[in-house]
Design a protein that fits this description.
Elements: E1 2-7, H1 15-18, E2 27-28, E3 31-32, H2 33-42, E4 48-53, H3 57-64, E5 67-68, E6 71-77, H4 83-90, H5 92-95, E7 100-104, E8 107-110, H6 114-123, E9 128-134, E10 145-149, E11 155-160, E12 169-177, H7 199-208, E13 213-217, E14 221-224, H8 228-238
Parallel strand pairs: 1-4, 1-7, 4-6, 9-13
Antiparallel strand pairs: 2-3, 5-6, 7-12, 8-14, 9-12, 10-11, 10-12
């Protein structure tokens, strides 16, 4: 098992903050945004971290080097900004046929259950385990993806950025995959709005092929930082006395 952190995006919706730096290096809670994911990985029995970098890659590489508190870091360059699925494809060779746990470099998870998630993945025969969180405001689901499950949390349908979510389950970027997921990239359709391949569509291809995919409640609260509204959500949920503001 390896860990993969995707941190190559431009972050245009935070342009006033990320124009001259990698978005994942903006400070939230006194540490770089990507370090929230690194600290979660530090607590897991995963020896190697692959970080996919692109825009201002040197910001991350120069700061963290090749080791994070005893865990090896390997960098992969995403030379074109073509979305999450393309970023995964870029790191396929570096994974060397290993399964992997996926993190986003711009997400914050409060009280994650990663050890339990890993254990569940090893116990299941699923090709993928998708981290989900229940939300009160279903409008938040329109920022990520919707997850349709049965009572056993088997996933039947994933919907990218739905206008009308069917339930209160919000999909996150925190998932665990068998390496076999790469075999479905070629048949993943290109999203006609964003003009790139989307992670939920990749997973849906595996589901449609008869592969088992399950949901796992990954944390108590989750925010993917893509806009100033997301920064406001962080401040309102976790307290204005906590330094989750962007440090310039």
């Amino acid at each position: 098992m390896k860990a993969v952190i995707l941190a190559g995006g431009r972050g245009r919706r935070l342009n006033q903050y990320s124009e001259d730096r990698n978005k994942c290096m903006l400070l939230f809670g006194g540490i770089p945004l990507i370090e929230h994911s690194l600290r979660h990985i530090e607590a897991l029995p995963i020896p190697e971290i692959i970080i996919v970098v692109g825009y201002r890659a040197e910001d991350i590489i120069n700061h963290y080097g090749i080791n994070y508190n005893g865990k090896k870091i390997r960098y992969v360059i995403q030379r074109e900004q073509r979305g999450l699925v393309h970023a995964l494809e870029c790191c396929q060779e570096s994974l060397e046929d290993h399964d992997f746990m996926l993190f986003l470099g711009d997400e914050i998870m409060i009280d994650p259950y990663h050890r339990e998630m890993l254990s569940n993945f090893y116990d299941e025969s699923a090709i993928a385990l998708c981290g989900v969180v229940r939300v009160e405001d279903r409008l938040q689901i329109s920022k990520t993806y919707s997850v349709v499950v049965n009572h056993g949390l088997q996933i039947f349908r994933l919907i990218e950025k739905p206008k009308h979510p069917a339930n209160d389950l919000m999909g996150t970027g925190n998932c665990i995959f068998k390496n076999k997921i790469f075999s479905y990239i070629a048949q993943t359709p290109i999203n006609q709005v964003r003009l790139e391949k989307e992670l939920p569509d990749l997973i849906q291809c595996a589901i449609d092929d008869g592969q088992l995919v399950k949901a796992f409640p990954v944390c108590k609260q989750y925010v993917n930082i893509n806009s100033e509204d997301d920064i406001s959500i962080i401040q309102s949920r976790f307290g204005k006395n906590i330094d989750y503001g962007v440090a310039l």
